[in-house]
Amino acid sequence: MNPYVLATLLSSLGLGTTLTFASSHWLLAWMGLEINTLAITPLMAQHHHPRAVEATTKYFLTQATAAAMILFASTTNAWMTGEWSINDLSNPIASTMFMAALALKIGLAPMHFWMPEVLQGLDLLTGLILSTWQKLAPFALIIQTAQTIDPLLLTLLGISSTLVGGWGGLNQTQLRKILAYSSIAHMGWMIIVIQYAPQLTLIALGTYIIMTSAAFLTLKMSLTTKINTLATTWSKSPILTSTTALVLLSLGGLPPLTGFMPKWLILQELTKQDLPIIATAMALTALISLYFYLRLCYAMTLTISPNMINSTTPWRTQTTQTSLPLALFTTAALGLLPMAPAILMLTT
Amino acid sequence: MTYFMFLLLMALVVGLVAVASNPTPYFAALGLVVAAGVGCGVLVGHGGSFLSLVLFLIYLGGMLVVFAYSAALAAEPFPEAWGSRSVLGYVLVYLLGVGLVAGIFWGGWYEGSWVVVDGLKEFSVLRGDISGVAVMYSSGGGMLVICAWVLLLTLLVVLELTRGLSRGALRAV
Fold first, then answer.
1. Are A60 and A95 in the same domain?
2. pTM recorded for the entire structure
3. Where exactly are the structural domains of chain B?
4. Of these four, A39, A55, A337, B24, which has the most CB atoms within 10 Å of its CB?
């Protein structure tokens, strides 16, 4: 892409999120969300093949619908209560509509249907931006308004997201769709606890961004998009093979890896709030997701799939891709669990 | 006056139904013209005459004209107006939905909302909408700068998306 256009788009991505973070007025927050949607559209369609263009169209339609609903909710609130401030979303119609709109924006079940197809049509780096950066601005709004939203809605969104994320990912062989369902499940975990302890939502969001960045960057480094090709990447980089297995298990939430931290703290908070059934349900749905993460580990690391003898050990030349982000994110995705008290203190 | 407002609002909803029922874009633009026109009438009825004139000029006279020319370039051999079977189905379903919602919400919800733009009605020179524009340029200057950036961004986005003419279009391969 033209470097000037690329610079404009990337800086607008930053501008949109910053605008939503910094705003206390609904119109400015909506503008930030729309800037994000606009700026990522050409990045998604840059390869111009029909699947990418279709993914771009679907993404644009869903995000525009969600943004229109946000505008509608905020104008309804302004009409009924006269308040344009984000923290004062006191009208129940407006707050429920707003939560539905944001659920559509971040891909919470039952508004998740666009996510797998959209992620499947993108290349891995754009999919990474979609899964991580585009979630920050809506979560800033959700955290600010969570106190006024109906608790039943939040709980239903959370539980259904983890269920859908688990069950939907079970039958997939395409890695981007698996990561899409993983994203849906993690969003469910973040939403379930937001009414009780928003700092745990922040921790869950932060660790999710780290882990999914590690996963996407690994796939980009070994240029795989399906389980079949994942099974033969063990020979390209043995270190990557071992760390990817651990990153996937971290996404699944196993101790002593980083992914255990949010799940553990969230389950503890739910238990403290006297919601043992919800906590048990969340833990069981995490088990469903763990199954397909384990399948990926098995395919990549724990077995050697049938292969031609003269293709098992390719030349391991130095990679031309930048490996520093991958190294950073992988280290963080594996080793941050002992930092849990510090992280809790930083986000409270 | 109330009946006139009622008529304008009915025409607005009918115009929106005409757009949403998915005819050929050329006819949908006609629906948009009707909807925007009566929307301007509603604005005038509430005292926002400047805003209504600006809306007419810029939206109808600028953006919709450009859209009509572009839609005319993409003309179809068999255009579907609101009489064709598929579009008529949509029109009837949407009108049914409108009737349903009107039946549920009939009376009582709008009485608190039909106020004028500002409290002084005819006794001031600077009306609410004109002074609102002035405030937008003074206190809201930062937002206008961001709007200008967004316009530039939109231009670059559209140019980047449509680069290569028919290569990137959504087509059945």
1. yes
2. 0.89
3. 1-105+119-137, 139-172
4. A39
